[in-house]
Amino acid sequence: MGKTLVLAEKPSVARDLAKVLGCNQNGNGCIMGSKYIVTWALGHLVTLADPEAYGNKYKAWNLEDLPMLPNKMELVVIKQTSKQFGAVKALMHREDVDELVIATDSGREGELVARWIILKAGFKKPIKRLWISSQTDKAIREGFANLKPAREYDNLFYSAQSRSEADWLVGLNVTRALTCKYNAQLSAGRVQTPTLAMIVAREEEIRKFVPKDYWTITAQFNGFTVQWQDRATNQTRTFSKEQADGIVRKITGQTGEIVEVRKDMKKELPPLAYDLTELQRDANRKYSYSAKQTLNIMQKLYETHKLVTYPRTDSRYITEDIVPTLAERLRSIAVGPYARPVQGILRNKLSVTKRFVDNSKVSDHHAIIPTEQYVNLSALSTEERNIYDLIVKRFIAVLSSPFEYEQTTVRLDLAGENFTARGKIVRAWGWKTVYEGFGKLEEDGEEEEDDQSLPEIQKGQKAKVLSPKAVNGKTKPPARYNEATLLSAMEHPGKFVDNKALKETLESTSGLGTPATRADIIEKLFNTFYIERRGKELHPTSKGIQLVGLVPEDLKSPELTAKWEQQLALISKGRVSSAAFVGDMKGYASKLVGAVIANSEQFRHDNVTREKCAECGKYLLEVNGKKGKMLVCPDRECGYRKTVTLVSNARCPQCHKKMEIRGEGDNKSFYCACGYREKLDAFKKRRGDQVDKREVARFMSQQDAAEPINSALADALAKWKK
Questions:
Q1: pTM of the entire structure?
Q2: Which CATH class is domain 3-146?
Q3: Is the pLDDT confidence value at 116 over 70?
Q4: Confidence (pLDDT) at 701
Q5: Catalytic residue ranges
Q6: 565 labelled ligand-binding
Q7: Is 383 marked within a binding site?
Q8: Sequence spans of domains, the chain
Q9: What is the pLDDT confidence band of residue 420, given thresholds at 50, 70 and 90?
């Protein structure tokens, strides 16, 4: 009897599949059983070949050899993981293997991982697809009972391959053109460049912004505060000091009359469930986690703990087939702080509406919700617990009743001027009880008008006005992006476009990139030193600002990138030919290379130091990495980099701020902005009773690494707050 080969994306997932499928015998790069053999990739094992594979002339970077437009894109085995590819290929060609089950991640990239391995290995036997949204034993068993023919996912593969080939054609051609033309390490890409352009444009707005004075007018009436409102425009501010002072003079000592009291019962519906981007936004706002960090934590909750469903989703809805499982999911999370709200929901009949259940709004995967797996909160790290808390609270909130309140709006006539006040009486907290009355995390930049407690008020009531005053304020420039607001801008770039038809196109696609790729795009902008973080704010560097000035105009546009994503979505639905799309991309790459060559602008390094590169002798550039200052070589072929300072999580014993690590070897010391300084030896001695010595050694050795990274110890140091 023949065997079925199962291909997973990672070893951890392969172990879970093997357990359910009864495989317990370890082999070379696989786990075997009587009916199944489970093997795994290590992410991508196969990728598109580098330009050098298409001829010796591409080994050197020359402008005259561009654009590079191969007739057929070649696949190569990735050198670092070639041993595992060899093991997978050997299993595919075993005589007793009758069929293959693709069990890589259920999404565009997961499909690409498997199909490229299958193509490169030359596997020709029947193929089926496992498509599941969670990694629990139950989901795996149900998935294997409902395997689909792989051909149903052919278009998804064509979409993924087209995306990869387009990135190669545009990204590598423009990057080589920029680097050769300006003799600097410059790169551009179909998503990263428009994203960088948004950050640079915002910086330009802030730089040009001139604050304007405005005035608001308030007064006390019958024990509460009233605010002036322009009768014609409904604005509560005026840019004329003369008008503001005139209104204050006019109402001083006057008696006002209440001319309207309006009471409205209002309902605030629960928020929608999480997709990946919304979760990354909230995690950044609440915990300052980067988008990449949140995705990594989510992967652990999904793969290792099996507590949440597939993270890389762009939907905030579930499908009807999930509804019967909701009660079991609720029972599995009814522990600790979640027990009481869950019991409240289970006592009442679950009311699920189109606000949560809508098949038409789910493409590959439904919203992120808890699985039916029982949760042991103590088994989670602090970071995992924080993200899990966000997901569970949102899940409970979605299934809770609306927040209901009575809003009272009062309008006052005061010497012919219009004044208003607003008050709120909560009738039912509903879903907000999940968030202890604070509601969901507020959207950045949204300011809610303060509601106040109002006494009993009747229309026609009169009283003398007290303490009238004009309060001066200044208009504020637009806020710099942080990761939360940048993710929002990438998801909804339509606001940056004037053309109405294009705006609608942008809103109907996934925007710039996809939920799965946005975190990596932001990381890439940090790693190429185009942006840096100051506090929570993202600032473009001189290099980033100059690059946006050098790249062709339409490569900066969200319109173009979103159109590509729309085309890829249509390819995945079988409505557009992938060959036609890639052909268009070849023409586009040629056009972009021509635009770079024709540009007469100059690029200037303004961060050159007097220290020479140890490898090639060129003067090093000083840059701010994500975790501290670095010196990097400007020469693309050299690539030398050296860490100068590293922001650790060790806290200063005097002012409790995070300290920097500077120096090399035995001269390493901790420095604080307040002036405190401590040699590494003294630090180790002072903290020796609290830290594992091997951890300290590992931490310090990593400071010499090329990448500006923090280690496990650096994270552990965060707990040392004195």
A1: 0.81
A2: alpha beta
A3: yes
A4: 46
A5: 310
A6: no
A7: no
A8: 3-146, 164-207+481-594, 213-269+403-474, 276-398, 608-717
A9: very high
